[in-house]
What we know:
The structure is a homodimer.
Chain A: H1 4-11, H2 15-22, H3 30-43, H4 49-56, E1 61-66, H5 72-87, E2 91-96, H6 101-113, E3 118-121, H7 130-135, E4 140-144, E5 155-158, H8 160-173, E6 179-183, H9 189-204, E7 214-216, H10 221-232, E8 241-244, H11 247-259, E9 269-274, E10 287-290, H12 293-309, E11 317-320, E12 323-325
Parallel strand pairs in A: 1-2, 1-3, 3-4, 4-5, 5-11, 6-7, 6-8, 8-9, 9-10
Antiparallel strand pairs in A: 10-12
Chain A binds a DNA duplex through residues 1, 3-5, 13-17, 19-20, 23, 27-29, 32, 47-57.
Amino acid sequence: MVTIKDVAQAVGVSASTVSRALSGSSLVNEETKSRILEAAQSLGYERNELARALVKGSSGAIGLVVPDITNPFFSDIARGVSDIADRNGYGVILSNTDDRADRELSYLRLMRRKRVDGLIVCSARLDTPLDESLTSAGTAFILVSRLSIDPDVPYVITDDRAGSRLAVEHLVDLGHRRIAFIGGPENVQSSRDRMDAYREVLNEHGIESREEWRLFAGFTQGAGREAGRQMLLHESERPTAIFAANDVTALGVLEVAEGLGLRVPEDLSVVGYDDISYASLPRIQLTTIAQPAIEMGQIAAGWLLRSLEDEDVPPLQRILTPRLVVRSTTAPAS
Amino acid sequence: MVTIKDVAQAVGVSASTVSRALSGSSLVNEETKSRILEAAQSLGYERNELARALVKGSSGAIGLVVPDITNPFFSDIARGVSDIADRNGYGVILSNTDDRADRELSYLRLMRRKRVDGLIVCSARLDTPLDESLTSAGTAFILVSRLSIDPDVPYVITDDRAGSRLAVEHLVDLGHRRIAFIGGPENVQSSRDRMDAYREVLNEHGIESREEWRLFAGFTQGAGREAGRQMLLHESERPTAIFAANDVTALGVLEVAEGLGLRVPEDLSVVGYDDISYASLPRIQLTTIAQPAIEMGQIAAGWLLRSLEDEDVPPLQRILTPRLVVRSTTAPAS
DNA sequence: TTGTATGCGTTATCAG
DNA sequence: CTGATAACGCATACAA
């Protein structure tokens, strides 16, 4: 690899002058500057960001921690983050935790060892010392779509309680009384909030909230199938509507429902959450609660980068408003 | 940040001893080693990988270049890559090119400046000096699901011609004679291969290959809608089957078809490519050509990492066999 | 077994 | 405007 020294030698100046020229310093003779640039070009010089990072104390990279990049909601967030990061010359280091505390911790440590300038975390859990491990580390960070116990951390979320209420009220409005809820992981704040709001709405309407119709499962399609099967198996005990904490999960429910010969929405109404792009396909037409995932990624990355440049940007705590999108998987209770 | 020196001072040894102890060198007294480890622990020492990278000449990161992480095919690949990389302590730096040559080039340069140890590229184009920019750089790399002009580069692909043949022959077997093809970007090898094989099969069966039924579009849902609309608009000139170069595109086709009041598969058969997880949803049931995306990512990452450790692993040129998955979007021509 | 000195490629400080 | 020189944090060759 050709270094700054090689360029210096080629041009016949000192390394410092080359460094200055290359970083566009104004205090360097225009003519020598152009000679340096030219030489750098023809020698194929590429600045070693590692060395630069070492002395500048900033790596020019941010870490992105998601449960599973395969989930469209998170790949959308990743896309948003990546767009902003790229535009500002930052690299994005990706890692998947599968919502496992141990992996989350170990990746966070890896990121810190790599001296990422900032962290975007979409997989914060409640039962894990994430907060301390983040906050104490002195690395800038922001949570996306997750909350932590600590109320002071920056985040970008949508109002999960409001979103959940929207979904359940929609179902109630349609005349459903046997409404089930399949949540994500229990140790995730958004899961709990959606669960709480679900129970709250049922309560407000004097609707019985049966324990078998209330499950913390997970954010995967498999979890949806599993939980869905469990709830739909016994005909007499079957709910007429299922609210799944996540579109992917809802798709799993759709799958078992279909397998059990149930028609959606005639026999079963299904509501999802996220409004991933596949939810709007004509064949799917999933009623769901929309979250602007790409935008959330952009907002988070935007704030993070700004707070890296600027010492004193106030911590961002942005709560976006979710939106009910009624499509064809919900219908009046029969 | 606490450095190796701080630990050294705390324990009362030299920095080099700490360095040795921390990297598990055997030539250091067991007792001092444990004292060092303990001190490092309690001081919250985290090795600065940047500094380490600088001296070792290896950053412990690999770059992953995809057209769009939002496309399930690529997020699957990313997942496979990430799994292997993480397991080996490597970081994954992600970037999205949207299949644009300029972005591809600039990200590749960014990666090189960041001194990634290796590169996994899923967005190689034919009309761009990527190959040179890669090969000449001396950074190890491997192409996934893309080919380049240079026959000697390492890659993991599936046999695109074979896959395309599978799809078109399936359609022909069903009695279709008016078969259209919507390809990906024209400057991508896999696009061309699929197009070629499509024409080849039609030829072999003496089926007319109309120009209006042959389009290079793109790998996005929007491209599918656009191209699909164009082909389906005029009733008299309508194909009875469309083979889309990609599931996402096929979903777009499904969307316009539905919008135009066409029933699939009664009025129109549709075949996709990739077998993304949403293709198997009961509501979708897309007939498609399966590629093992996660596995491809794993294979590529596995080889890349091996070739980083080991100087002389032979270049991998792995061609996986695609598989026809018949579901419900194809039916005999009426 | 440990310490000293040196270098990885940059940037920054301080003279000139 | 330019050039030494000293860091940045770590690893290692060489001494001790």
